[in-house]
Amino acid sequence: MKLERFRVSPKADETMNWALGIALAAYALSFLDNYFSPANDGQEPLVQLFASAVNPDVLSIVEMVLKLGGTLVIMENLRRCLVREGRYFLQLAVVLLMVLMTLLGVVGCLPDGTVMDAEGTVSQTALGVFQNRFFFWDSVAIFLNEVFLGVGLMRFYAGLIRLYGLSLFCAPLLAQLGSFGVYYVYTEVGGVTMNTIQTLASINNYASVVLAVLPLVLMRLSMQVQDVDGLAD
After folding, report:
1. Number of domains in the chain
2. Torsion of CA 90, 102, 72, 157, to 10 degrees
3. Could you tell me if residue 230 is inside a domain?
C-alpha cells in the first residue's frame, strides 16, 4: 500500500506550522503591497499614506526572505522524509530545488540593473542583463526539477503526497496560462473595454497568488505528526 502522508516528529510538525504561517503572512503582505503601491493621486488618502510610508525595495526583500525561509524549512523536512523512505534521487531533487530557489532569491535582492538617462530612455547595465538571463534559466531549471520531483512523488506515493506532486507542475502551468490568456485578450480580441481587461487582470492576480501558495500548503499537509521510536526531528 502506497504511503499517503509522511510521518514527522512533534517538534518538526510545530516548526513547519510556524514556517507555513510566516510564509503565508509574507504572501499576504506581498499581495497587499502590490495593491497599495505605488501611491498616486487617484487612490484613497489611507492607501496613499500606506504606500508612501513603505520603502518598496526594503519591503520586497523582507517579503522574499520570509517566503523563501518558510518554504525552505518545510522542504528540508520533506527531504528528511524522503531520505528515510530511501528515495535518494527525489531527495536530491529537493536539495537542488532549495539551492535554485535560494540563488533566485539572492539575485533578486541585488540592485535593479536598469538606468534612465536625462532623456528618459531606459537601458540595462551588465548587471541587468545578467539578472534577466539568470532569472529565465533559473526558473526553467526550477520548473524542470519540479516536474521530475512531482512525477516521482505521484509514482511512488498516494493521497496528499501525490496531490502535492501534481501541484508542483500543474500550478505553474495554470498560472502561465492565466497570464497568457489576459495578454491574448488585450492584444488579439477586439471590442473588449479596458475595464473588462482590468477585471480579468485582477482575477488573474488573485488566481496567481492562490496557485503560488497551493503547492506550499499541500507540501505541509503531506506530512503529519506521529510518535515513532527512533524518528528523527
Report:
1. 1
2. -20
3. no
**Cis before 38 (ω within 30):** yes
Q: Which amino acid belongs to residue 56? A: P
Residue 233 lies in a domain: no
Q: Which three three-digit cell numbers place residue 174?
A: 495554470
Q: Is 225 helix (H, G, I), strand (E, B) or coil?
A: strand
- The per-residue pLDDT for range 214-230, each reduced to its tens digit, is 999 999 999 998 754 54
Domain span at residue 196 reads 7-113+125-225
Would you state the pLDDT for residue 48?
A: 43
Q: What is the pLDDT of residues 127-164, one digit of tens each?
A: 778 888 899 999 999 999 999 999 999 999 999 999 99
User: Residues 70, 22: contact at Cβ < 8 Å?
Assistant: yes
Among 130, 137, 142, 154, which residue's Cα sits nearest to residue 212? 142
